[in-house]
Amino acid sequence: MRIAELSRRTGVPVPTIKYYLREGLLPAGELTSPNQARYGEAHLHRLRLVRALVEAGGLSIAAVRDVLGALDDPEKSLHKAMGTVERAVVGTGAAPTDEVAHAEARAFVEGQGWAYRPESDAFQSLVHVIATARELGHESFLGQLEGYARAARPLAEQDLDYALSGPTKDAAMEIVVLGTVLGDAAFAAVRRLARREASGIRYARDQAQAAAGPVPADPAADERNC
């Protein structure tokens, strides 16, 4: 197929496809003339994957390049691929320096029976979150983490089961990418939906109680208390 058809079938504009080609996110097509190239189903699939990572996953072009590199590396295991995807999703900023937050994050991680890996991007992100909460005067936010851990354990197992369902290593690697990037985005969306629903239920209950007014006094009870 020509680049115009590739654009039509994916919804990605031609200039964007050319940009992805220049950035190495999409392999070059088969040249049929100096200014024309032919693309196949593999290009179609890869372009849809790139679009999902950029648009739904919110990854930068540099992060997408790292993720695709892990996907295409025949020597990289699923476990290491997850680490690469995690770094792309979480990002690599300056290592946190708040020693109190670091100690609290370590205590939480070890309290869950998880390995303490201070170099992990996820661990450093947790330290940043705890430090920020403390700076804003919300030290009690630390208590939220236990509930997050209870929710995260079955989700982590579900993610792994989903990844291992791939019929081949290549398929499993792609599932790791999509499950991590899109899974994070999906969980955030579902969490917001659930929170809005819970808030609506509480609001309706409070409105109903306010409309009912105060509970009338029981004269008989007053007489008994005399």
TrEMBL record:
Chain ranges of the HTH merR-type domain: 1-70
> Domain of life of the organism in this record?
Bacteria
* Entries under Gene3D superfamilies matching the protein: 1.10.1660.10
Q: What is this protein called?
A: MerR-like DNA binding protein
Keywords attached to this Swiss-Prot or TrEMBL record, sorted alphabetically, are: DNA-binding
Which InterPro entries does the record cross-reference, listed alphabetically? DNA-bd_dom_put_sf, MerR-type_HTH_dom, MerR_fam
- PROSITE patterns, alphabetically? HTH_MERR_2 (PS50937)
Coiled-coil region list: none
Molecular function per GO: DNA binding; DNA-binding transcription factor activity
